Write a sequence for this structure.
């Protein structure tokens, strides 16, 4: 799973990651590898250590008076890190919902982010088109539909169809390579839930049917996302890894 | 099939914060503040510890981030996010693997770098130059072709008194400038090429080789 020693290329890659010269997609690839490659992590840490003295070359800039107040307000909405993890884990082991009000609030509650994504109708239309000309993949007229987009590339990766409000089908539109030691975890959250609920780990490769028996019936605008988590799933019971695909249910 | 497809609301996340990049530092410049102990207290839920870190390092963090993102509002947003990250990820900090000061600066730097690289890709900047690095071969040729007739002046007053100075000193000024433009100013390969008037392939090769040289020297 991990290589004990790194080649020059990876040492250079780690150095470029720390310098900051890598383009966005390569940065993400390095970050994904870091999660499960201690040798690369060590190389990055070594570069951080080597270059850190040069952070002194940037002139200090006094923050606005209200920046700390803002940070404090944001902190107030979170419970301390370790306690939060503990309570989330306890919650996760007892009840699927509701979850404590914390964690990943930024993503799940970020209205501007959702609005920014509203302009992606073209891609959605394209996906719909694919489904229309390929009726074999639509056995029953779905009541709800979700297109899950990759936030980094704005490309559609999965479709969720629900022919009833208690059963959904997750259909891959392409291939997705899960990094070694990682897994895709599927989450959903309706507007009035306090936190997302895990629908389990997803094995990419084919359509997957899921019963939502323990959840309230599917509703319009319900969020779905796939995040990259440890192979055994999120340790906290809440999404912790990067969002790979995300979308919102639409009633048809 | 029903023909009028309903509105589609598609979502995208702002920033998926990646896994902890880890980090360390050679020395703590600010000796009046025990960063590691304060980060440990953050992990225990002590907000005063975060405030102390902010009071000590807020201006320097903002300075580092400002140099990279070059926008005051965005830089403050990033320092805000960095402080929340430091708070939430404090329990992942391992004092045996590096200095607390370097760890917290790395958190902020990588948030800043992610933000500008994400913006770069939105405008397609650097896209055709990115990826693979298979152009290393002809970089070699290009590099020899570039022989500035006038000596290149230092872009940075870079002597910090740390050990890495000795290693950075072994690089030619133009290569040293490339490395520091990247680390301090957050410039991409293409931006460094444009800024210094050096061919892109040469910049890439210089940085690559400078990294190998620095690693060897620091070993």
């Amino acid at each position: 799973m991990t290589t004990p020693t790194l080649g020059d290329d990876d040492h250079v890659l780690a150095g470029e990651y720390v310098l900051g010269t890598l383009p966005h997609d390569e940065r993400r690839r390095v970050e994904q590898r870091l999660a499960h490659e201690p040798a690369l992590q060590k190389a990055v840490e070594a570069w951080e250590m080597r270059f850190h003295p040069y952070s002194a070359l940037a002139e200090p800039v006094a923050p606005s008076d209200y920046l700390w107040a803002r940070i404090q307000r944001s902190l107030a909405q979170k419970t301390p890190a370790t306690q939060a993890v503990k309570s989330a884990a306890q919650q996760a082991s007892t009840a699927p919902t509701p979850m404590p009000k914390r964690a990943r609030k930024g993503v799940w509650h970020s209205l501007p982010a959702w609005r920014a994504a509203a302009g992606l109708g073209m891609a959605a239309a394209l996906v719909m088109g694919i489904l229309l000309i390929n009726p074999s993949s639509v056995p029953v007229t779905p009541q709800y539909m979700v297109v899950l987009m990759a936030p980094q590339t704005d490309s559609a990766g999965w479709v969720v169809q629900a022919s009833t409000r208690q059963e959904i089908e997750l259909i891959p539109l392409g291939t997705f390579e899960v990094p070694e030691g990682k897994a895709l975890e599927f989450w959903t959250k309706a507007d009035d839930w306090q936190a997302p609920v895990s629908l389990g780990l997803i094995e990419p490769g084919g359509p997957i049917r899921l019963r939502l028996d323990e959840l309230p019936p599917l509703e319009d605008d319900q969020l779905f996302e796939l995040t990259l988590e440890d192979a055994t799933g999120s340790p906290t019971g809440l999404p912790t890894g990067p969002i790979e695909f995300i979308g919102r249910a639409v009633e048809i | 099939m029903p023909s009028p497809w309903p509105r589609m609301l598609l979502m995208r996340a702002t920033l998926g914060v990646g896994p902890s990049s880890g980090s360390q530092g050679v020395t703590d410049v600010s000796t009046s503040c025990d960063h590691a102990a304060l980060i440990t207290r953050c992990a225990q839920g002590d907000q005063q510890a975060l405030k102390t870190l902010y009071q000590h390092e807020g201006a320097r963090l903002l300075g580092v981030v400002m140099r990279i993102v070059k926008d005051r509002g965005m830089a403050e947003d990033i320092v805000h996010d960095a402080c929340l990250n430091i708070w939430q990820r404090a329990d992942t900090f391992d004092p045996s693997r590096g200095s607390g000061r370097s760890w917290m600066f790395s958190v902020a730097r990588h948030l800043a770098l992610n933000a500008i690289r994400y913006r770069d890709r939105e405008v397609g900047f650097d896209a055709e130059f990115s990826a693979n690095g298979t152009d290393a071969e002809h970089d070699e040729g290009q590099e020899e072709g570039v022989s500035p007739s006038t000596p290149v002046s230092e872009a940075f007053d870079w002597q910090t008194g740390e050990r890495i100075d000795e290693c950075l000193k072994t690089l030619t000024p133009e290569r040293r400038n490339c490395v520091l433009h990247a680390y301090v100013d957050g410039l991409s390969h293409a931006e460094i090429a444009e800024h210094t008037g050096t061919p892109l392939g040469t910049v890439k090769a210089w940085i690559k080789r400078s990294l190998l040289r620095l690693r060897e020297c620091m070993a």
Remarks:
- Chain A touches chain B through 95 residues (CB under 8 Å).
- The radius of gyration of chain A is 21 Å.
- Helices of chain A lie at 8-19, 24-34, 38-51, 67-76, 81-94, 105-108, 111-116, 121-133.
- The CA atoms of residues 201 and 222 of chain A lie 19 Å apart.
